[in-house]
Amino acid sequence: MKGKPLASIVSAGLSKFGKMEGLYGRELFAQAAKEAYERCPNLDPKKDIQALFIGHMGESYEHQGHTGATAADWAGLTPIAALRTEAACASSGVALRVGIMAILSGMYDVVMVGGVEKMTHRTTPEVTEFLAMASDFPFEQWHGITFPGLYALMATAHMHMYGTTEEQLAHISVKNHYNGSLNPKAHMQKVVTLEKALSSRVIAWPLKLYDCSLITDGASCLILTRPELAKKYTDMPVHIIGTGHACDTIGIYERESYTTLKAAKLAAKQAYEMAGVSPKDIDVAEVHDCFTIAEIIAYEDLGFCEEGMGGRLAESGETRLDGRLPVNTSGGLKAKGHPVGATGTAQAYEIYLQLTDQADKRQVKDAAIGLSHNVGGSGATATVHIYRRE
Questions:
Q1: Phi/psi of residue 284, each to 5°?
Q2: 338 carries an active-site annotation
Q3: Residue 287 lies inside a defined structural domain of this protein
Q4: Residue 301 belongs to some domain of the structure
Q5: Active-site residue 305, yes or no?
Q6: Using CA atoms in the order 295, 297, 299, 303, what is the torsion angle rounded to 10 degrees?
Q7: Torsion sign, CA atoms 269, 270, 276, 279
Q8: Does position 1 have pLDDT exceeding 80, yes or no?
Q9: What is the pLDDT of residues 298-339, one digit of tens each?
């Protein structure tokens, strides 16, 4: 199985990310689906797509559940089978894995996977409360800790153990905002200086405003098929050659370490072994930078550097667009935005663009193998996927 395509992406779509006033989440998903259909004229959506798997974190934002049927309806796909996956911020990373398994099972030839979240019409305290539902209720939520606080605990632990600095955190923000400035679909399309990032107001020390991802509306989707059928739909398929998924304790207080995400390390190990590649083979990566410390920890968990060296890797410039290993070319969650249910397949959308030379100003030259890393909550869920161009 090593290196053998598990499923192939033949098209992908992404709505504009941002504050999308006057639009429901279902309408954003319809926009993403429309782009995917237009990118693949050989596909007849109504005839060819046999199932839909969609990531969606919370009903609270729009007072709307039953997301599978709603999304299928607005994407013009009824009466196919459609279901929602929920794994906090990793909801559509899990949807992607479910779609891969559905193809591998032989039950379906073509499926759509995706994700959606509509968040910006709610107040910041409301969004903070809804997001906190992905943490442990009796021992975290009930005591008032929020996700900036949880990731601040990780950041201070990393600083204490490895000497990571606030400036190294800010380097992540600067890099990702630059990449976002090149992405017309990003929520935040402006360059940020190191000085501005460092002087922004404190949210939960050492995390400042520019260390935190955005409250965003958006949707994303991919169309997957059996690898042997991919050329029927496109001359430029992207093959998924590795998938990993693991979980850890819901509360970080029970974990072995605050400076690594065990679930992410295990998911990465599974994906690398299945794909028959190692970290040094990755040409471009989208990682889960819900906070800047999360990207630094991801570098280590994914094997891009040794444990404790993530801050130095950020500072070195090697993960910039022109570096040895470009990371978060889309702008990441930090600048592209983080509509939580949509994030996992939005990461895959960016890798699809990169591996088919469609990323325009942020294109990584000769990118052949890509990786996406999607985390739920404070690390209780993680998925890792590895992709190869045709």
A1: -155, 145
A2: yes
A3: yes
A4: yes
A5: no
A6: -160
A7: negative
A8: no
A9: 999 999 999 999 999 999 999 999 999 999 999 999 999 999
Domain encompassing residue 106: 7-122+214-389
The pLDDT score that the predictor gives to residue 355 is 98
Tokens 């994030």 -> residue: 343
Separation between Cα atoms, residue 259 and residue 301, nearest integer Å: 10
Q: What is the mean pLDDT of the chain?
A: 97
Of 174, 178, 171, 128, the C-alpha closest to 149 is: 128
Q: Where are the alpha helices (DSSP H) in 184-229?
A: 194-199
Pick from 89, 377, 345, 384: which is nearest to 245 by CA?
Answer: 384
Domain assignment of residue 187, yes or no: no
Number of domains in the chain: 1
Q: Which residues contact 249 (CB under 8 A, 6 or more apart)?
A: 255, 380
CATH of the domain at 223: 3.40.47.10
| Structure token pair of residue 205 | 């020390």
Burial class (CB in 10 A: 0-12, 13-18, 19+), 100: buried
Give the separation between CA 368 and CA 258, rounded to whole angstroms: 33
Confidence category of residue 192, pLDDT binned at 50, 70, 90: very high
The rounded distance, in Å, linking the Cα atoms of 379 and 60 is 22
Phi (first) and psi of residue 302, to 5 degrees: -90, 0
Which tens digits make up the pLDDT trace of 215-229? 999 999 999 999 999
- Close Cβ partners of 295 (under 8 Å, ≥ 6 residues apart): 172, 176, 287, 288, 289, 310, 314, 327, 328, 332, 334
Nearest to 196 by CA among 213, 215, 186, 211: 211
Identify the DSSP state of 240: E
Options 187, 288, 338, 373, the catalytic residue: 338
In a domain, 143, yes or no: no
Distance (Å, whole) CA 111 – CA 225 = 7
Contact 383, 90 (CB under 8 A): yes
pLDDT, residue 2, reads 85
Amino acid at 280: K
Spatial CA neighbour of 311 closest among 207, 212, 196, 163: 163
> Are 255 and 150 in contact, with CB atoms under 8 Å apart?
no
Query: Catalytic residue among 89, 212, 221, 305, which?
Result: 89
